Amino acid sequence: KNNYKIIRFTSNDKIKLISNLLYPQDDVLKNASLVFPWGKLYNKKFLLSNHIAFHSQVKICEDVYFNISCFMCMKKAIYIKTIGYYYYDNKSSAGSSYNKKAIYIGMKSNQLITKLLSDIRCKQIDTANVYSILYRYWWCVVVDFGHIYNRDNIVQRARRMKKLKETNIYLEAFKRTTTDMFNVMDFNQRFVMKLIWRNHFLFASCICRLRIVVKRLKNNK
Fold it and tell me: Least crowded by CB within 10 Å, which of 5, 77, 126, 148?
């Protein structure tokens, strides 16, 4: 234990943990991978007594739904700051493989996560969820619009970007987006998402197309 930095949390910290899961800003917690189940040990009795399980209808971002459920019910949690996991990059995973229907499955997940969060009447959580929905639009850019196996031309891709943004859950999130939310993202995310925020869909589509060309050149090498 002396080799590890241990931080303890109680039920009073649930808002802090959930908001940082959705919108990582805390200097310590933003590197804690709060979203992912693979970085955690769960007490089986805790899960069973609170009826926590992976939601059968949440096919994408199921880890977000699961861990929010855990933090909502928690009485105590411990964060041990150490590297104890080696990641295997699965090229056929939901985040890597191409599925044109994935963005619509993601929309359903967004709705269910938002419904779960509605039980917490808190401005901090509400703001964090706006960022989380925005980030999942970026996920759509990665798994669809900018995927190497996407055969849409630039205009088709731009039209689909626009159509997705105009769905209720994304439209509402983009209306409430702040510049600070973009600053949390890395440069590539921030650049494309600002273009979409300002309705420059053709320009954003060109950037996605360029990314695909670069990926293909690297693969050929």
Answer: 5
Single pTM value for the model: 0.84
Give me the residues paired with residue 78 across strands.
8
Q: In a 3-state reduction of DSSP, which class is residue 77?
A: strand
Q: Using CA atoms, how far apart are residues 146 and 130, in angstroms rounded to an integer?
A: 23
**Structure confidence at residue 46 (pLDDT):** 96
Average pLDDT, the chain: 88
DSSP string, 159-209: HHHHHHHTSHHHHHHHHT--HHHHHHS-HHHHHHHHHHHTT-HHHHHHHHH
d(CA 58, CA 112) in angstroms, rounded, equals 7
Two tokens, residue 86: 């080696």
